Task: structure prediction
Amino acid sequence: MESFWSSWLSVIGAVGIAAGLLLLGRGLAGHRSLMRVGDLSSSTIGSLAAGEVRVSGIVEPAEVTLVSLLQSTPCVYYRSTIGSGDDRPTADSGFTEERSIGFRVRDESGSLRVFPRGARFDAPVRFQGETDIDGDDPPGLALRRGGSTQATEVDRAIAVAALLAVRDPGAGGWARFGDRRGRRSYREVRLEQGDPVTIVGRALPFSDLADPDAADVGLGSDIALDDPEVAADLAEARASGRLADDAAEAWGNAAIPGFGIGRPVVAPEIDPAANVLPIAGVAEAERVERIFEIPPETLVIAASAEVPLLIAHGVPGDVVARGQGRFMLGLLGAILAIVSAMVVAIDLSGGFPR
Result:
């Protein structure tokens, strides 16, 4: 009996240490966000200068938006998690998909383009649930069946074709998650059009972005922007001439504004046997240019080696309040870890009465 209680005290103490350290880690992360947001004052977008900045405004989509995994909702960022709904560990009990795409943030003075690669996101939970005892899906689950992106402005003919297309129900859906039997839990956090956000990052001219296409997409676990191996590979490619100096040289027709939506603003070079694409008229060319082109001198926000990028839901006061709450929770976690460690140490030394 004595050994039974001793073993349980040690197990409970170990769990307390692990839980306390986890809470402490989350609290410190929240504190770092708090310090960055709280130590800067917000700049209006219309008066923005290059350097580290804090801006606050409303999310607006750019050329395309993402389609979230669990609710098929247009958004600019999502992190979707599918896990086992019971306590039995299985090989496929966890799946996470996290993506972000470039967007604009607007305040009363103007709008600013945000390139999210390498960003740390603090987004709200928009969906959470689990299968019921009969294995039925929770209300609100609408698993994405098609592509993960969609155009912000969709041509009517393209939209009609998409609606008439017949898709395999398993394609892009449950087939990649394996067997659906058993309990499952779901959780999705998102940033959507119209959400208030506070952003801390580096403002710089668009021409200073080394790779705008890569910076426009985030896949959750990006390689650090200052990774020495990546930097060496880029330097070697530039020196050898394998890295193109401009988009037209690198991408050919794909670099022509409007080519991807069937309305190029200039004639592309295509095979004579291919269908000839109509050249966009003046008004349509202006619309395409407005959507897809960013003047080189335009200030944008992106991550850099010196200034990490933080994109948080809410106005600055809300972000600071969340950081304070997480920091206090982290302090409680530290106390829990210390007390649990003391319990384990006393128990292993035979200090508790038997």
Remarks:
- Residues 87-92, 169-176 have pLDDT under 50 and may be disordered.
- Residues 2-38 form the longest helix (37 residues).
